[in-house]
Amino acid sequence: TVSVCEPLAVLGRDVEVPLVGGEKVSYAALDYAASAPALQRVWDDVAAYAPYYGSVHRGAGYLSQLSTDLFEQSRATVAEFLDLRDGDQVVFTRATTDSLNLLASVLPAGTRVFVFETEHHASLLPWRREDVGVSYLRAPRSPQEAVAALDQALAQCPEGPKLVCVTGASNVTGEIWPVRELAATAHRHGARIVLDAAQLAPHHPVSVRDLDVDWVAFSGHKLYAPFGAGVLAGRSDWLDAAEPYLAGGGASRSVAREADGSVAVEWQQGPARHEAGSPNVIGAYAIASACKALTEAGFEGLVAREQYLIGRLRAGLAEIPQVKVLTLFGEEHPRVGVLSFVVQDWNSSHFSAALSAEYGIGVRDGLFCAHPLVRTLLGGEEAPPSECGAPEALPGERSLNAIRVSFGAGTPDEHVDRFVAAVR
Ligand code: PMP
């Protein structure tokens, strides 16, 4: 066995939940891909800072200065965590969705965006601007096919600014994408590339320099920090040249009433340009704390632990003939601690509800905000929404949605074993 990495101890391991029969069991949180539990260390850091927090970049008082320092130090910690290049910047956002919408808002007019239809909606949809074209690439069936498809699409694209957006690890299959190869292909054609690292960063080191991506986006709440803060990091030029994502205080360097009655604004350069309003200082500090904890613990132990759990999970599920694991690149392709499946003759929503009510196991069911991908994996059309919003299949029919199990730091063997036993 590979033991739990203690420096990455998480909160909530001893939460008791009631089952249908009234009995109580400890909750098995197997939905890390939606939101991971916070690290104890992150919680402690935030609690230690809480009595001192003040507004940043505004106050002359001691606590405002302290908070400004901590906020800017948090930016530097994230830059280190992502191994950014000189001149790159870290913008604090609300989460990955916000980060990618921010990037979409700064694209030069006439940009063409290339995105695989297999992406999460957060990386599939923000590019739909009137002055931006989007090419949706078909679901590839191997990493090589993904690289070749991008190569071909970019080769056919006329001159002009181009952006590729790609996920590092799928939120549905957990499969790791060939980011370095896609980045090299993008750059060979003069395109830029943004990495959606929402699912990769919590499981693997992400070096912007080494992967050679232009931007990276991730969410605090999937990286063992609380909700409400995320990151967009990378090249400054497009960010500094565009109108601010949000107009307001903090983004403006100087605002003056003109003689003709209009108002002239000089916007900030750097991260402040896109961080108008009072920023989420605690969120940024929590992300930095999580980055530090992951760096100090090292990813090796976490990766080894997750791979061990994946092996245990897959071996267990392989013995249940009714289970079909969803995969784009093949079951042997490297994945993070995320796996989706369907069970023959079972409706995935009912199945997941039973895992919760009868076994105290929390997973996710549905189409995981990646409708085209899940539809491709299930090989069928999406059913019309049911009353509760989820596509419905009656017992005995082919399921039109899936079940996702996901885990990470702090997941004990027992959670995976209980899950496999419950499925069986
Ligand atoms: N991209 C991927 C791959 C994701 O899994 C998610 C969250 N499920 C997002 C983007 C969006 O993240 P958030 O909801 O934190 O904005």
From TrEMBL:
Gene Ontology MF term list: transaminase activity
Xref: Gene3D superfamilies: Aspartate Aminotransferase, domain 1, Type I PLP-dependent aspartate aminotransferase-like (Major domain)
Keyword Cell membrane tagged: no
Recorded superkingdom: Bacteria
SUPFAM superfamilies: PLP-dependent transferases
Keywords (A to Z) from UniProt: Aminotransferase, Transferase
Listed name of the protein: Aminotransferase class V-fold PLP-dependent enzyme
Organismal lineage: Bacteria, Bacillati, Actinomycetota, Actinomycetes, Kitasatosporales
